[in-house]
Specification:
It is built from 17 helices and 13 strands. The chain has 508 residues and is of the alpha/beta class. Belongs to the CN hydrolase family. Apolipoprotein N-acyltransferase subfamily.
Length: 508
């Protein structure tokens, strides 16, 4: 009764709904790094749901749009280091997704029962996340599921249904809490309506506890070292600094070899500060790998037949170039202009040369104890935010994944921590280790349960914009993952749920 009376009095003010919508935006933002208060994601939608009560369609849409815009600006503010206009336009586009979700929620609140809303709202949210991950080349940054990366038990369900399944559960919990607060007299714990959602939450965490209690079979152990050069972006491509940049990475690699005795050393994206033409100007890389007598994976802009590639290259312990892999998913307006053919004026606004995407999922291989070798796929730059790319490497036989990136563009902000969250989910989804080498951080090794087991940090514990090396033992876990086998099957399920419920409503 209290909540019903409070709701009625509080909602009389014309500004109250907007304040509640903005409160949801703030709670959702705070659930991501930094500060990363993960528990807020469990209730972040509740104020928004209250704000939409008894609103017309236009109000619902614009309140969702406003909250979505504020949330995305607060989340992606670090893009101003690259482009202020681009950041504002991107945030306006991303705000459309919560606006559509709000319309769907208002529709379900009007026409569906409590039980149907518990399923319909999460299904719509997940469907919208999936569309955002693929439309206009896709931008699956900061999926709702990523808020739970500090909670290892909660993460484990991702090996069943991917990040989408975890996002579904979080919206499910939000709907349940709202319904409990909004119900006349509030929802008593003994209510039958409470039991089913509570059982789902118990099963969710029970599954997580069971999965992390299992010990993976650590076949073919391999110690891997990651190098974090901390090269400022403003000097990265200045010719007179290129020798010093190489020496810095070489010295860190020598230190890692002396301290850790790794079987593989990984450098960040474009850590070779020049256009690389293998066989022409890569002698120092070849000599370094041979001198260390350790396989070396480096990132470089590769030049071949007057085409530029953002590439990962593996030099074996004898200094031979073993394998080259080119980045598959390029950054629009960063590595190519998707509208160059039609909007020529953009060449003056964004004066960049188009990179060429890779054409295959190349697997690298390095010797490991007890087996002929471990195979791994390399995710360059932001490719680790795309679940299908990581899964494709594992399906093709990758025993672990490497993400080499350079987030120096965005300053010492929350960006690298948000980015690392994607790698954590990729590890759990496919039950493989993920090795991250980032120019300015966060460089770390993540186990197949989503736990960082080693990272680069200074004496004060700072992980970003410091230089250093870190190493950990990884291996082929031999753990199975339903998600690796079935992929995004949950998206088909939620699509049927949405379509079926709408058809059911229309037929009445």
């Amino acid at each position: 009764m209290f909540f019903s009376r409070w709701q009625e009095d509080f909602m009389k003010s014309k500004w109250t709904p907007w304040l509640l919508a903005l409160l949801s935006a703030a709670l959702l933002r705070l659930s991501f790094p930094r500060p990363g208060i993960w528990l807020l994601a469990w209730v972040a939608f509740v104020p928004l749901f209250f704000s939409l009560e008894r609103r017309d369609t236009a109000q619902v849409f614009f309140m969702g749009l406003g909250a979505g815009y504020v949330y995305n600006v607060a989340l992606l503010f670090w893009l101003i280091h690259v482009t202020v206009t681009g950041m504002l336009v991107l945030c306006a586009y991303l705000a459309l997704y919560p606006a559509v979700f709000c319309l769907a929620w208002a529709y379900s609140r009007r026409y569906f029962s409590f039980g149907m809303r518990l399923v319909f709202a999460p299904a719509v949210w997940v469907a919208l996340e999936y569309v955002r991950a693929h439309l206009f080349t896709g931008f699956p940054w900061a999926l709702l599921s990523y808020t739970q990366t500090p909670v290892v038990i909660a993460l484990q369900v991702a090996d069943l249904f991917g990040s989408w399944g975890l996002s579904f559960l979080l919206v499910f919990v939000n709907v349940f809490i709202f319904e409990g607060l909004a119900a006349p007299g509030a929802l008593p714990l003994r209510s039958k309506r409470f039991l089913v959602p509570a059982a789902v939450i118990v099963m969710w965490f029970s599954y997580g506890l069971w999965r992390i209690s299992q010990s993976p079979v650590e076949a073919c152990p391999l110690r891997v070292a990651v190098i974090q050069g901390n090269i400022p972006q403003e000097i990265k491509w200045v010719e007179r600094f290129s020798d010093g940049i190489f020496r810095k990475h070489a010295l860190l690699s020598e230190l890692a070899v002396l301290k850790e005795e790794p079987g593989l050393v990984v450098w960040p994206e474009t850590s070779f500060a020049d256009y690389l033409d293998p066989g022409v100007n890569d002698r120092e890389l070849s000599d370094l790998a041979a001198e260390l007598h350790v396989p070396l994976v480096i990132g470089a802009v590769r030049l071949e037949n007057m085409r530029y590639y953002n590439s990962a290259l593996l030099y074996d312990a004898q200094g031979r170039l073993e394998m080259v892999h080119d980045k598959l998913h390029l950054v629009p307006f960063g590595e190519y202009l998707p509208t160059r053919r039609y909007l020529h004026f953009l060449e003056d606004v964004v004066p960049i040369e188009d990179f060429t995407p890779g054409d295959d999922f190349h697997l690298f291989s390095v010797p490991a104890a007890g087996c002929q070798g471990l195979r791994f796929g390399v995710l360059v730059c932001f490719e680790d935010i795309f679940p299908e790319l990581s899964r494709a490497f594992v399906v093709r036989g990758a025993d672990f994944l490497v993400n080499m990136t350079n987030d120096a563009w965005f300053g010492d902000t929350s960006s690298p921590y948000q980015h690392m969250q994607a790698s954590v989910l990729r590890a759990v989804e496919n039950r493989v280790y993920v090795v991250r080498a980032a120019n300015t951080g966060v460089s770390c090794v993540i186990d197949d349960a989503g736990r960082p087991v080693a990272d680069v940090r200074d004496a004060g514990g700072k992980e970003t914009f410091v230089c250093g090396e870190a190493a950990a033992v990884i291996g082929a876990t031999r753990r199975t993952s339903l998600y690796t086998h079935v992929g995004d099957a949950l998206i088909i399920v939620v699509s049927f749920i949405i379509f079926g419920m709408i058809v059911w409503r229309r037929s009445k």
